[in-house]
Every structure is written in C-alpha cells, then in structure tokens.
Design brief:
Number of strands: 24
Strand order of the largest sheet: 5-6-14-15-16-17-19-20
Oligomer: single chain
Bound molecules: ligand MZP
Shape: globular
Strand content: 15-25%
Number of helices: 16
Structural class: alpha/beta
Distance between the termini: 61 Å
C-alpha cells in the first residue's frame, strides 16, 4: 500500500497572520525587502540578491525582454521563457543586458560631409533634434560633433552647407567616459549646464547619450538590480533536453541566472543538467525544481542547485492536478520545504533559497508565502496583467483583458517542461489558454502591492524578510471565519454611484 500522509495539504487562503508588537521603528519606510536568490555559506553574502522578493514566471505570455527590463528596474528579476529557439532567447537576454537606464544609443546620426538638407530630412524622419556626427554616420562611429537646432538657421543658411561647417565640434563639447555611472553622468550635466552628454569609449567612439530630461525618470528606480558592470540582472529558463546547446548561447549573451523549467523537478534529468552546468559554466547560477516536499528538496540540494523552486499544480492556468493527480497544496509544500532548507543549512552551513512558484492570487498571499519560509516568489498571472507583458490587450465583454496561457497548453507547446523522458511525445495538455483582467503599468501595481506587504510586516512587528520568516505567527482559518473576514451583514453600496 502507498504511504498515506493524513495531514491535509493546504493553500494560502486557509491562513491568516496574527499581528505582533509594532514598535515606533516599524514603519513602511524602514522595511527592507531584500532577499537572497542564490545559495551562500553561513557568514557570507549571497552573490545575487533582489530588492523585492518577486521573480516573473518562465512563460511565453509573461517573461520576454520588455517585462524583464521593467521588473529588474523595480528590484526583481525575470526568467525569460525557454520555449523558443535558442537564438531568439539569447537575443532577449542580450537586449536586457544592453539596456542601461539613462544611457541611450543615438538613433539619429550623420557624417560631417552631409548637407543641412540631409540634417533637416533626418530630423523630420526620426523626430530627434539632437544629431550625433560620427566619421561614418553610425551610432557607434568615431565621434566628431553634435548638431542641434541651435547650430543652424533654415531661414538664412544654404541647404547645401556641410555639417562639418556648422556642427558643434568635439573640441567644444563636454563628454563622459564609457563606464561612468548615471549619477556621475548627471553630475557632469549639472556642473556644466548641459542638455546632452555624449559618452565616448577610449577610442573616442560614440557609445551613448545621457539627456538631462531623463534624469528624473531614472531617479524613480532606486531598487534596480544591477550586476558588477551596472547592467540589469536577467534569468532564463532552460530544459534538460537541449541544455548543452542552449546554456552556452545564454551564457555568451550574458545571462546571470538559469532555472530548469519543469513541472516535476524531482528527477535524474535535473541532477545531470545541474552537474553539466557546474562542470562547464561555473560562472552562472542554476535553479532547479519544482518540488513539493523534503525529499525533493534534499535531492536537488545535494545535486548542487543554487535555488530550489516549490510548487506543483497550483498555477492559475495549471490543470496538472486534474490531468495527472499529482501536486500538493502550495502552503503545505512551502512550509515543509522551508523546514528542509533550514535543516540543510544547520547541517551543512549552506543556505539554499527557496522560491514559491504559482498560486498567488491576493497580495496578502505573498506575505503569507514569505512568512511560511519562501525567500522569493515566482508569479505568472500577476505579471501577465500589465502593459509590459508580451501578450495582446483585448476588449472582452466590455472590459480590457490580456491574454495568458500556460506552458503546458497547446498554444505554448512547451512539451519539454512536461517531458518524462523516453521517446514518446506528449499526448495531453496540462495548462489552459485564458484571459486575465488588464491592470495597467507594472510599476504602479508593484508600488501598491509592496505598500501592502510592508504595511502587513509593520503589523507583524518585523522589518526584513528574514524576521518575517522567523518571528511572525500564522493561524489556520475556518470556512466561517473567512466569511467574517469580508464585508458581512451590511448592504454594500455600489461604488460606481
Ligand atoms: P500563477 O502565478 O499564474 O498562479 O502560476 C505561474 C506558474 O504556473 C509558473 O511559474 C509555472 O510554474 C506554472 N505553469 C506554467 N504553465 C503551466 C501549465 O501550463 C503551469 N500548466 O502550471
């Protein structure tokens, strides 16, 4: 007979947080949501931490380069979906790594031999009045000068006049060196009362422009997650079939974190994939999963995973539990795996962060998942609703929605994620194709969500994720107490009146 676990497996909805003592220090401004993403030894700092405990799901309908940039700017990290060609996935990784907040690659360039007429045509075509003059007219050519509206007068100047005769030459321009930070660039802009600062490499080739007007915009991202070269951090999903071709291309593109994307990670395929990466690409981190119990965690921990993802069948678009009868309530899975992580840490001195993946519906579920021991959370539905997700925004039944489909749906055809080895291709779906309510900009929604989490943490009397994990108290709720928790026994007014 099978081993029967009589303890019911539970979901986030079945718990609440009991307030702890809130002291005067416990204000939202003092709450720090920084959290480790990759394993570290006792007494050492993790090599990668994020500033908000959120990562976006490894899904076609969620994590492309656009969402990755938006999320890393706000303090989280994305895992670009692996259910695409190696080339296109590597291109998306490159596009995130190339992105430098406030450093803009020049999109209007001209040679010194061009005429004023060509300048006017270029300005009309591109809409840019700031034109870079480079030896070969390219965005990264040898920088010779700038043309702005102040350098010519269409009323009096001949249209045949050459750029080199009216541009502001490099000798009269303040420039910055490639590699300086945005703050340093802005100091130069302010000290010299500039509108534009060209950034040049050591051979005087144009790399970027930094514009005075962009500064305020970038000051709004104090949480952004950067690597040692001040580039945004990005992750990517891989599978255990083509990893020997995919991983080198992603590493070459500059990826920081990899994650084996599988609905069931307790497998020898994952162990082999981790070993391959540790032996051949020791400069990149590898997460594994998903698992839902102590045994699965211990297996992947011993295999060398840098972080471990938890959750089977709880995703909003997931029908794995109905199709295969496997899975576990997400709250119970997190609680058991967090205990295993702490036990492993006590035994080995190695802390392996765990990620709660799927099933988050309410913002308070996020605080619960962290309190239950998750170090960070992976979410699909949450991010799919925003402008920055890669899917279409449609009007359905009078409301705006965004498309959101599972990796196990016919639409995604990510059969590797559900691959059980052997040669048989998959015969049934484990995910659905759906809509989610459109919710606007990622930043606006994150600000609200983070505000709620910080406020709950203040109620618990904690200021960090670690304190939330160790000091908070949770209680199970009965179905009748859930009714008590909503507005009840009143006639709620229609808020549209
Ligand atoms: P959610 O945030 O939408 O509830 O869940 C997202 C998670 O669901 C993903 O990170 C992934 O682990 C899982 N997922 C993705 N596709 C499927 C599927 O098609 C799925 N079944 O379960």
């Amino acid at each position: 007979m099978a081993k029967i676990i009589n303890e019911v497996s539970r979901t986030f909805n079945e718990y609440l947080i009991i307030p702890g003592l809130t002291t005067k220090e416990h204000t939202p401004d003092n709450v720090n949501l920084q959290t480790p993403v990759v394993k570290f030894k006792k007494g050492e700092e993790p090599k990668i931490s994020i500033n908000i405990p959120f990562v976006s799901a490894i899904m076609q309908s969620v994590s492309d380069d656009g969402l990755s940039i938006a999320l890393a700017k706000e303090g989280g990290v994305s895992f670009i979906y692996g259910s695409q060609s190696i080339e296109t996935q590597a291109e998306m990784v490159k596009s995130v790594k190339k992105y430098k907040a406030g450093f803009v690659t020049s999109r209007a360039n001209i040679t010194p031999e061009a005429s004023l007429l060509e300048v006017i045509e270029l300005k009309n075509k591109t809409g840019f009045s700031n034109i870079g003059v480079t030896e070969d007219g390219t965005a990264n050519g040898k920088f010779l000068g700038l043309v702005t509206g102040r350098d010519y007068r269409t009323k009096t100047d001949a249209y045949s006049k050459k750029v080199k005769d009216f541009m502001t030459p490099i000798s009269d321009i303040v420039t910055g060196k490639d590699g300086i930070s945005l703050n340093e660039a802005n100091d130069i802009i302010w000290e010299n009362k500039l509108n534009t600062l060209p950034i040049l490499d050591e051979n005087e080739h144009l790399k970027y422009f930094v514009f005075r007007k962009d500064y305020e915009n970038h000051k709004m991202h104090p949480n952004e997650v950067l690597d040692s070269q001040k580039r945004l951090i990005v992750g990517a999903g891989i599978n255990s079939r083509d990893h020997k071709e995919r991983v080198p291309a992603l590493v070459e593109a500059g990826v920081d974190l990899l994650c084996i994307d599988s609905s069931d990670g307790f497998s020898e395929w994952q162990k082999d994939t981790i070993s391959y990466i540790k032996e051949n690409h020791s400069n990149v981190f590898i997460g594994a999963g998903n698992v839902v119990d102590r045994e699965g965690f211990m297996y992947l921990a011993k295999a060398g995973a840098d972080f471990i993802k938890v959750g089977v069948g709880g995703g909003s678009i997931c029908i794995t539990r109905e199709q295969k009868g496997i899975g576990r309530g997400q709250a119970t899975a997190i609680i058991e795996v967090a205990e295993a992580r702490d036990e492993y840490f006590a035994q080995t001195g190695e802390y392996i962060p765990i990620c709660s993946d799927g099933g988050i519906v309410q913002d308070y579920h996020m605080t619960l998942a962290l309190a239950m021991g998750a170090d960070f959370l992976m979410m699909g539905r949450y991010f799919a609703r925003f402008d920055e997700s890669p899917t279409r925004k449609l009007m359905v039944g009078g409301n705006y929605v965004k498309e959101y489909w599972g990796e196990g749906s016919n639409r995604a055809r990510n059969w590797q994620r559900y691959d059980m080895g052997g040669n048989n291709s998959l015969k049934f779906e484990e995910g659905v194709d759906s809509y989610v309510p459109y919710a606007g900009k990622l930043k606006d929604n994150l600000d609200l969500t983070i505000g709620k989490i910080k406020s709950t943490m203040c109620s618990c009397g904690v200021s960090t994720v670690k304190e939330l994990q160790t000091n908070s108290k949770l209680t199970l709720v009965s179905s009748t107490s859930i009714i008590e928790g909503g507005a009840h026994d009143v006639i709620v007014k229609d808020s549209s009146n």
